Amino acid sequence: MAYYITTPIYYVNAEPHLGHAYTTVVADVVARLKRLKGEEVFFLTGTDEHGDKIVRAAEKAGLNPKEYVDRIAAKFRETWPLLHIEYSRFIRTTDPYHKKVVQLVLQRLYEKGDISFGEYEGLYCFGCERFLTPKELLDGLCPDHKSPPTPLRESNYFFDLPRYQDWLIDHLRKHPDFINPPGYREEVLGLLREDLGPLCISRPKSRLSWGIEFPFDRNYVTYVWFDALLNYLSGIGYPEDPAWKKWWSVAEHVIAKDILKPHAVYWPIMLRALGLPVYRRLHVHGYWNLNQAKMSKSLGNVVRPQDLVARYGADRVRYFLLREMAFGQDAEFSEEALIVRTNAELANDFGNLVFRTLSMVKKYFGGRVPGPGEETPEDLTLRDRLLSAVRSYLSEMEAFRFHRALVTLNEAVAAANQYVDRQAPWELKKRGETERLSRVLYTLLESLRVLAVVLWPVMPKAMELLLRNLGLAPEEELHLERALSWGRLSPGGATEKGRVLFPRLEKPGFAQEEAREEAEMEEKLYPIEEFKKWDLRVAEVVAAERVPGTDRLLMLKVRCPEERTVVAGIAEYYRPEDLVGKKVVLVANLKPARIRGVVSQGMILAARDKGGLKLLVPEGEVSPGAEVG
RNA sequence: GGCGGCGUAGCUCAGCGGUAGAGCGGGGAUCUCAUAAGUCCUAGGUCGGGGGUUCGAGUCCCUCCGCCGCCA
């Protein structure tokens, strides 16, 4: 059996972040699971590198677009191996073969009549070099350039979505599992209840040159989705490499919810128009919300996957990502949660089970696998619980319910820990019941072997190490069928106690930072004498005007009671005429400073937040020059 | 504004028509093979508000509120 899984190609206007990492880890885990089952797997990921955002990001970085995309694409390629992600191919939309495929598809659909030329009218901002949507405007102005956009007509190419709308609705109805989880299928059906318009798929080269040229009109390049989505076909060699058909018939995509519409609406229609079968399934996950309060500061605001791996290790991060998020829904990410979760489930429960078992085997049997002996009902109960947990784990994993899958498996781990306590091998040892002791430890070793294999897709490196510590060769054991046949460990085999698999983390980062913060707070307290150094006074504004050539500065004449000139950066919030007569608070003993040629003799106090800036004013009547303190 | 999702114990979430659940944290006890780990006991939340359907509703319907996403 073959299996083809993809991540989206990531847009290279930013470096890899947690969301990218999650999608890619999910795809890798599923790919490994399928390989474990003996299936032949193709796993595609890559980068999306065209468009005006890239051009602008490149300009900002002082590079030409190609240099820029090369640099960011490299960051993605460097990041995935750190997370132990093993993809089959990394595709870039700037690959010559991909470009060729896009052009071929455009040509074919154009000839077929699915692409037509038409006029588009919209509000264009010359500063941004793009059309703005009505929603983006602020009081009718471009939010970035504060200028009114120009109504502009532009001719473009359009893809005829409406022609296939009914077909798509029908397809969704006939294939209930086409989109997973089912909530997103409902959402798509909702989208399709309204008429789709034609999809604009071009940009005139005069406006955007960083794209793939239309084969039948050199004045245009493709825009966004038409280019990007086709990677799923070009990445497997469509149409030249005959192998593409094998993969395409079993294709499954993994995406985040923000790109649902292109994948669930545009893409199936493109495929239909091309006369190709649609992909098999679309798996949609939610967002990671970052809980800043529970983040270590040294990591910064953006969670970089590289940093997480460096700090916690790939296996722990992979486990946490799958365990913490209910696939399809949003989840909260924090390092504190990562530490707490992996401490409890990986260190205390699973890791400790491994270590105590191997420890007893070493202590009581010199590290040799003991003989299986006779199986009692207790042994059989554990074996049954474990194997049935593994079965539901596997089916939950295949359904992309990773979260539940791991919960199920943890229950089996708990059962094994209970078994250890109830059988109390140390008692058996004391009483000299070697036969029974032998059986108990054999049962535990077998349990670990099965767990190691089925958890390998999630935590490949740690589980390979565990298998080796059990005296087994990973490449021999990593086959699901073999793994599930009880009794593969042969008595006498050498085991290794090894190192603790998942050392418990004591949250040192947080304790230290909290302490440092407290210390800083302490240092930031000052005696009142410090405050008294400042000469704060009420001042009355007698005149105000803009400082020529600036957007933000006002020049104020104030009385306090002597007259002074003060420059204040409040022009975005106050008009000069509204200020005259206002009483404000002035810092009167600042060193005079020359700002834009004007000497400012003091500073006006104001409060600022998201909503803007507000001057501090006395609540009632006071005379100019009154002391503030 | 339209569509969809979410709102259940301090925290993270399961449950989706039949007497409110798990894990973590908290409290108590206990074993000693083990990573100050394990095991056992314990926690009393008007299941966002209101209305309705039903013998019976976190669980279905309507409505309101809050948060999130997509779209216009």
Largest sheet: 6 strands, parallel
- Strand content of the residues, in percent? 15-25%
Helix content: 40-55%
- The protein's oligomeric status is single chain
Which geometry do the CA atoms define? flat
Structure explained in plain terms:
- With 629 residues, this protein is of the alpha/beta class.
- It is 45% helix and 20% strand.
- It has 23 helices and 25 strands.
- The strands form seven sheets. The protein has a six-stranded parallel sheet with strand order 3-2-1-12-13-7, sandwiched between helices.
- Helix 14 (377-398) packs parallel to helix 17 (434-455) and helix 15 (402-423) runs antiparallel to helix 17 (434-455).
- The longest helix is centred in the middle third of the chain and has 31 residues, at 335-365.
- It binds one RNA strand of 72 nucleotides through helix 6, helix 13, helix 15 and helix 16.
Throw out a few tags for this protein.
629 residues, alpha/beta, 25 strands, RNA-binding
Summarize the structure.
With 629 residues, the protein is an alpha/beta fold. The chain has 23 helices and 25 strands. The strands form seven sheets. A six-stranded parallel β-sheet has the order 3-2-1-12-13-7, sandwiched between helices.
